Amino acid sequence: MLYGEISEYSWYEDDITPKEFNKDLKAMGEVEQITVRINSGGGDVFAAVAIYTRLKEHKANIAVKIDGWCASAATIIAMAGDSIEISVGGIFMIHDPAAGILGYYKADELKKIADELETIKQSIVNCYMTVTDKSEDEIKSLMTDETWYTGEEAVEAGFCTAVMLTEVETEVEDAEKIIVNSVPINLNTFHTVPKGLLGYANSHNNKPNAKNNKEDENMSLTLEELKSKYPDVANAYKAEIMATAKTGETDHTAAVDAERARIKAIDEITLPGYEDLADKAKYENPVSAEAFAMQMVAAQKKAGSKFLNDREADLKDSGVDDVPPVSNKGGAGEDDPFGNIIDELYPKAK
């Protein structure tokens, strides 16, 4: 169950990581088939490649099922499947890799980063070419354009092998976040999100081999008609429901526990004065405790820089630099009325 963000590591095991994946893979033992269910907006490319590699080298038959979204780095993992099925209401997206940069860099250092991104892109293209018949140049162009596919379009483009007749629940919270089958997906990392796709999963009618013609658009089937006309589809759908029923309660409980642990972890590391930032990290734009800690560090750094700049401005505005220095001559020659009184009262002491 690869549901959520893909990360190189995770403090509270709330992300998809190579470490957790390897642990789960080892616990399975010797098996003939592995079903990998994906619902992810992507994440760390290197982590995704590590998981992809473990799947490709495994002796078992790998059946990938995309239950909701498969975007960015998540598509790399999907390419490891001997079969790659995607929900009829699913979303598949490919784009160029990107690097997050903090600090100051010289031109040659930036060029090195750009060269690294080109190398990473080529490795992703190589993964895609093991599945689709598209040419290398065509795939690179599609990645540059940040191309989005519906479930059926992903199959037509050759990135997936078949469509599953399963439902996808998509809830659009705001312009930055959506919830896909209970999994939050951050849209800030994507440059072009087609608005039509956000509601596609809920509006798309899940019927066999749906085509854009009036006869299919007006077709509706009762359960008995579905069994009679499409027995294979009915049996496959039944199997999906039974599998979900067996694992649904456990998955839901685990998800709730993980969310509680994430919120608790953020509360424990929140410093005074950063409560608003913590609320955003917990509810408005959910991130892991690790990511929140980095946000606090960045906020502290920004606040420190502002303090130093404000202090420098205050000193300049005070005019202290314009006050000429005046010597007090070491105090010599100054009238000392208090000393004179003491001398008169206690002449012997003097």
CATH class of the largest domain equals Alpha Beta
- At CATH level 3, the topology of the largest domain is 2-enoyl-CoA Hydratase, Chain A, domain 1
Number of domains: 2
Ends: how far apart? 93 Å
Query: What portion of the residues fall into strands of 2 or more residues?
Result: 5-15%
Structural class: alpha/beta
- The helix count comes to 14
Helix content: 40-55%
- The ordered string of helix (H) and strand (E) elements is EHEHEHEEHHEHEEEEHHHHHHHH
CATH architecture title of the largest domain? Alpha-Beta Complex
Q: CATH homologous superfamily of the largest domain?
A: 2-enoyl-CoA Hydratase, Chain A, domain 1
**Coarse shape:** elongated
Describe this structure in words.
- With 350 residues, the protein is an alpha/beta fold.
- It folds into 2 domains: 2-220, Alpha-Beta Complex (2-enoyl-CoA Hydratase, Chain A, domain 1), CATH 3.90.226.10; 261-317, no CATH class.
- The protein is built from 14 helices and 10 strands.
- The chain has helices at residues 18-28, 45-57, 74-78, 107-129, 136-144, 151-156, 195-198, 200-203, 214-217, 223-229, 231-269, 275-284, 289-318, 337-345; strands at residues 2-3, 33-40, 61-71, 83-87, 91-94, 147-150, 162-164, 170-172, 177-180, 183-186.
- The strands form 2 sheets. Strands 1, 2, 3, 4, 5, 6 and 7 form a 7-stranded mixed beta sheet that branches.
- A hairpin with a 4-residue loop joins strand 8 and strand 9 (177-180).
- Helix 10 packs across helix 11 and helix 11 packs across helix 13.
- The longest helix has 39 residues, at 231-269.
- The radius of gyration is 31 Å and the shape is elongated.
